[in-house]
Amino acid sequence: MRAVILKAFGHPATLETTPNPVLGTGEVIVDVVACPVLSYAGEVLSGARKYLLDLPVIPGNGVIGRVAQTGPDATQLKTGDWVYCDPTVRSRDNALTPDITLQALSAGSEGGLKLQQYFRDGGWAEQIRVPTENAKALGDIDPDQANAWASIGSLLVPYGGLLAGKLQAGETIVINGATGKFGSAAIAVAFGMGAGCVIATGRNKAALSSLVEKFDQRLRVVAMQGNEATDQAAIKEAAPGPVDMVLDLLPPAASPAQVMAALMTVRPNGRVVLMGGVGTQDGATIDLPYAWLMRHNITIRGQWMYPPHAASMMVGLIRAGLISLDLFEVTAFDLKDFKAAIDHAAANSGPFRTTVVRPS
């Protein structure tokens, strides 16, 4: 099969012919139809992100494809079924504290590295091998919609945060850092879950304006100025009432003050979910106001990725019309043009933009 292979960080990945993956028990082989390209894929391949990744590797995760082969433990999947290949691979020998790897992206830990060394290769190829439980059935789809379905990964990450925060229908939520890939998708997911009002914050006024054009009056935007007190006041003024929940998705380059400006707007008994990157790349982190949190019964929850059942639930939200894939502008490249796809993804990382490679 044709596949893009990265042999060493900092050295160009190449398109080569390599053996097809071999099926094992507890696994599924999927014919790749479309695979997303992360906006920071170039940084991963160069080693700039310093992700724990055993090389050589076929990059790419979040495949939309069709089942080619199933192992003996598959009781419902069958050849030809459309599936989403969930890249969040969990070890099976400790359900309480599983090791996790993001297939073909980042192992995260030494335990995750053991997983990655086996489920190592991703979707910039004609076929991919995934654990049986990671092949999430999509039902029948029009083949022309495969590219659009490749945006499901953008929705799943913030969905994990909204599930963790137990967002309820009718509530007001602040999406802190709403102009990026995951922050903008969080708006669509929150409304799909029944949010009464979403306060979207960001520093890019043009990106905020583009969000206003996509949603109704339940979306209110706040252009952050970088002053904690001023930004906090602006968020409260934009809200129609008490803020029930805050979901922080700010990138590593953001300051702790940006996190605190949103966090401190939540009402007594409110919830805050932290999913962003502040403090993850040797930067400053937040100092939590102990007394204020205690006296106001604030729940703070960290959340990385999403639970195993989330992908199937997201398919249901999309199928029900509660979340529309039409929000996404998708640009597709042939697998042989993967370098152009990497450049395009980096230059088009704004709200509701997806870049995919297709092996055929």
Please describe the topology of this protein.
Layout: E1 2-5, E2 14-17, E3 27-36, H1 41-46, E4 64-70, E5 82-85, E6 88-90, E7 100-102, H2 110-118, E8 127-131, E9 135-137, H3 146-149, H4 152-164, E10 172-176, H5 181-192, E11 197-202, H6 205-214, E12 219-223, H7 228-238, E13 243-248, H8 256-263, E14 266-274, H9 290-295, E15 299-302, H10 310-319, E16 329-334, H11 338-347, E17 353-358
Parallel strand pairs: 10-11, 10-13, 11-12, 13-14, 14-15, 16-17
Antiparallel strand pairs: 1-2, 3-4, 3-8, 3-17, 4-5, 5-9, 6-7
Give an overview of the whole structure:
It is a single chain. Helix 5 links the parallel strand 10 (172-176) and strand 11 (197-202). The mean pLDDT is 96. This protein has 360 residues and is of the alpha/beta class. 28% of the residues lie in helices and 25% in strands. Helix 4 crosses helix 10 (310-319). The chain starts with a strand and ends with a strand. It has 2 domains: 2-151 and 328-358, Medium-chain alcohol dehydrogenases, catalytic domain (Quinone Oxidoreductase, Chain A, domain 1, Alpha-Beta Complex); 156-302, Quinone Oxidoreductase, Chain A, domain 1.
